[in-house]
Amino acid sequence: MKFATVFVVLAAVLGSCYLVTAQTHNYFFGARVPYDTLVNQTTVIQSSSFLRVKSLNVDYPLKGQRGRNITAIYVYDRLGGGRGGYASITKGGIGQNSTRIHLKSQRGNGMNFQVEIYGR
After folding, report:
1. Which of 2, 45, 64, 115 is deepest in the core (most CB within 10 A)?
2. Contact 25, 86 (CB under 8 A)
3. Domain count, the chain
């Protein structure tokens, strides 16, 4: 009986550790609907620096371009393993014709994001 209890507790701890390391930091703002088109796709790759946090802003539309009404913003963390960074919208966004997305790495890690912006 005692062996079974120890086994169950050990399995639960190992299972939760696996879930933590398998996390990705994907972000989905808004929702795609029929007739939405991909208006901007940006890939951001930065290498890691020892004990440093890296950050970068992705702006839409680019200077000189006319923005379309944004319906969805998808940010995919392609680094994986729980080492990826974080994304947040700091300006504009869904229902607007412009946006600024702030990307930030975890301390000591790089970043590898794919940002997709959909609109009409």
Report:
1. 115
2. yes
3. 1
